[in-house]
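[agent] plan:
  1. take the single chain provided in the ticket
  2. run structure prediction with default settings
  3. attach structure tokens to the ticket
  4. add a short note for the reviewer (M.T.)
[agent] executing step 1
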Amino acid sequence: MNFRKYFVHAVNRNFAARAEIILAETDKNFNLISQDTAFALNSKNPIDRRLDFSAYFLALIKTLDQRGENFETIRRISLEVVTEFVQPKNKIQQALKKLPARLTNTWLASVVIRSFNKRISKRAHPDGFVANIITDKKQTFGLGYGIDIVECGICKLFLKHSYSKYVSILCEVDEITSSLAGLKLHRSGTIAHGAAKCDFRYEKIKPV
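[agent] step 2 finished; step 3 output follows
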């Protein structure tokens, strides 16, 4: 769990006096929740692999909710965790995050996209993701790459544990990760907010 340290940082910043207790309770909740996401570590659908992180995310939310923290406090702390987690740690990582956007519309990208689409468009597990890649330039701001998530494993996980109220917090992070890749995210709806799918469309950010 190389992501746990980011949760530790946020909890220590916000709950210094109670940090150890909160983290212990979070670990306990994670041990139970992660039983529902164990399949993701070896899933044939690569998107499913983000569910381990989501399970710990849910474990922290559950801990803070049980301790009486309000939605906005939980949202703020959760976004602190994820924002720190997705930031590139060096210039190499920074460059790698922007590489996919630069490679779109190349022969290499088309091969990778076709292979990736075959893997993510099939339900590898009932509790996992199903998604489709969109390559029509007219639908993707000329980029030739977009994605529709038609089944969200994160929504399924949060619903299973009666915490759907909080799942939209993770949706907010998509704009951050998109900007780090040099892209602007366009999205008309998310499953977390009741839409039939999460439609990710990207537009390259023009240099200022």
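[agent] step 4 note for reviewer: Helices lie at 4-14, 19-33, 51-66, 71-86, 91-103, 107-120, 153-160, 168-180.
[agent] ticket updated
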